[in-house]
Amino acid sequence: MSKVDRRIAKSQEAIKNAVTELMSEKNIDDITIQDIADRANVNRGTIYLHYTDKYDLLDKMIEEHINNLRVLCRSASEMTFQEGNYVWFEYFERHYVFFSTMLASKGAPSFRSRFLDLVIEEFKAEVDVTKGKNVGFHEDVILQFFGSAIVGAVEWWFKNGMPLPARVMAEQTGALLDRNLE
Amino acid sequence: MSKVDRRIAKSQEAIKNAVTELMSEKNIDDITIQDIADRANVNRGTIYLHYTDKYDLLDKMIEEHINNLRVLCRSASEMTFQEGNYVWFEYFERHYVFFSTMLASKGAPSFRSRFLDLVIEEFKAEVDVTKGKNVGFHEDVILQFFGSAIVGAVEWWFKNGMPLPARVMAEQTGALLDRNLE
DNA sequence: ATTGATTTGTTGAATAGTCAACAAATTGCG
DNA sequence: CGCAATTTGTTGACTATTCAACAAATCAAT
Known about the structure:
The structure is a homodimer. The first copy, chain A, is built from nine helices and no strands. In chain A, helix 4 packs parallel to helix 7, helix 5 packs antiparallel against helix 9 and helix 7 crosses helix 8. The interface between A and B is small, with 5 and 5 residues. Chain A binds a DNA duplex through helix 1 and helix 3.
């Protein structure tokens, strides 16, 4: 919580927003540092002050989103799957541009698996899958199975331009998880 | 023209936007410098770096808008009144929050007269009102008459929440001016 | 009027951002 | 391929912004 200098916060915010915008327009490899600087209204040198290169910047952005989701998870640990999922889907909605380009085929190929890892990690922490209706199953099978399921649903949601409200997505995926994991 | 340090431009832009936002929410006298700094996401000291106080800041904003309108006028000097007015009304529309709070009774009482002065000044520069259908009239009477007319129309437009598109306002006021001044 | 709280305007030191210039690396095209 | 143009990453000097601290001014209510 140590107070970050306001200038740093503003510059990084502008830079990250610029990247997400640009990524919805063209492939990451076709984006130059100068493009980012222009869009962010920041001197090119400022970017090097915080990131070693384009990919480091993207990595840090991914890292940050993953971490925000992790925090959301912790704060929602006492909720049902339906409520908890809604918190996630709200976050997705708020960062639509980022997630939809990230999950689109050529955003950052690594993102999908980072995302899946997080989902599974959180399932593992929140649910004891070896009790109840899932006795006898191998834990990793269960986790991989339902982790992939939820990630796939999210992917579908973005690729089809969020055809359902976040609330509905949360309720339906939540219900499916409840039915299988609680 | 590109010699203003980027940081100065960004800070001033943020500060001015913050003020227009805040002015649409409460009276200028109820706005503290800290309010502005918070909204602009800028240190309080930064404001004093550019403006001596709240009212100086507001003055400079007014000055700038008046001047922008003046420049627009020059660049539109070869147009008909209808075309030229459209340029103005587009500018009004783009800065809706500012103009509507400025022309609202409690905005800045001085603004209306500054605005009227500009309109008259530009009429004087663009139109020879003593020729044609206006021979025999006193120039200042004509200028004051039609200056007030256009300012009043703009005022009405803002106070009623821009009930007509800028294009229509420009066409109608433009036609009325053409009929009387050309 | 006397309090206590908020806002103001100013200071000085620390630092983030700017800008221009540079060489090295990469791209792209005939 | 080879060459020109662009992009990259780095540097150093300069300056705008930040932040915390301060006393003075203003406000609000008893």
